[in-house]
Design brief:
Elements: E1 7-10, E2 18-24, E3 29-32, E4 43-46, E5 60-65, E6 69-75, E7 78-83, H1 93-96, E8 104-109, E9 116-118, E10 136-141, E11 145-151
């Protein structure tokens, strides 16, 4: 796409859910699209993320049909202990929690016997950057929401010290 503009895709023409990314042909890098993977129903609009690394609007939309599974987790106001049953394709905590953005205050985890925190309002002090399947996370919700997690089934390895 040589200029920046919105693309509308008829998702019902695809055989399964798709992972969507923007490809920057000038740097050879991919950028994840928030909300991906997308169901193969209805239409979906995609807008490039701005200028590419060369400073122009040249991007390629990559839609990859996958066997990605989906799972929902109901969270209520207050502290919730959750674990992801699937490994998200992009484990960035901001991406995983994008659909409930604004409805939580903080996320805590204790990997390798070290407390880590993610605060969406104070990103400078964050020590928790990714969410992995099988790890436990304390999330403080301000309102009830449903967290949708998409990804692939993790390996069935158990780890010393407990697996959630």
């Amino acid at each position: 796409m040589p200029t920046i503009g919105t693309i509308t895709v008829d998702m019902s023409k695809l055989s399964a859910a798709v992972r969507a990314q923007w490809y920057d042909p000038t740097s050879g890098t991919y950028s994840s699209i928030a909300g991906s993977p997308f169901a193969n129903a209805g239409t979906q609009q995609f807008t490039p993320p701005g200028n590419n690394s060369a400073g122009d609007g040249d991007w390629a939309l990559v839609l990859e049909v996958s066997t990605v599974e989906a799972y929902t987790i109901s969270v209520t106001p207050g502290w919730n202990l959750i674990s992801l049953p699937l490994q998200p394709p992009n484990p960035s905590i901001a991406t995983v929690l994008a659909r409930i953005n604004g409805a939580y205050e903080a996320v805590w985890a204790y990997p390798n016997q070290t407390w880590k925190v993610y605060d969406p309002n104070d990103t400078a002090g964050n020590t928790l950057t990714n969410m992995q399947a099988g790890d436990g996370y304390w999330i403080k919700m301000t309102s009830a929401k449903t967290l949708s997690v998409a990804g692939s089934a993790p390996s069935s390895s158990l780890f010393p010290g407990g697996t959630l």
